[in-house]
Amino acid sequence: MKAKWKWAGHVARFKDDRWTLRTVKWPGPKGNRSRGRPRARWADEIAACAGEKWLERAKDREGWHSLGEAFTRTGSMH
């Protein structure tokens, strides 16, 4: 969990438009989805803890680090 949190902060702080940042921001395919529960995405746990604007919050290293302590201590926030 700690590595996931650190990687999310690292990706959010990328200066250019790298493919990793573009895939995190990508809303997904358009059109109808299959039946059943939607698949969990990589950033869903991060957004559940830090909020939907986690990409902006991650740019503040100190604040992101303190949020990460809570995230890794509990395993997740939901």
Topology of this protein?
Blueprint: H1 2-12, H2 19-25, H3 44-50, H4 54-57, H5 61-74
Helix pairs in contact: 1-5
Cα end-to-end separation: 14 Å
The helix/strand series, from N terminus to C terminus, equals HHHHH
Q: What is the overall pLDDT average?
A: 84
Sheet with the most strands, sense and barrel status? none
Strand content: under 5%
Number of helices: 5
Which of globular, elongated, flat, extended, rod-shaped describes the shape? globular
Rg calculated over all Cα atoms:
13 Å
Q: Considering DSSP H and I runs of 4 or more, what fraction of the residues is helical?
A: 55-70%
Uncertain residue segments: none
Class computed from helices, strands and strand pairing: mainly alpha
Number of strands: 0
Overview of the structural elements:
By secondary structure, this protein is an all-alpha fold. The chain has a domain at 1-14 and 42-78. The protein contains five helices and no strands. The chain has helices at residues 2-12, 19-25, 44-50, 54-57, 61-74. Helix 1 runs antiparallel to helix 5 (61-74). The longest helix has 14 residues, at 61-74. The protein is globular.
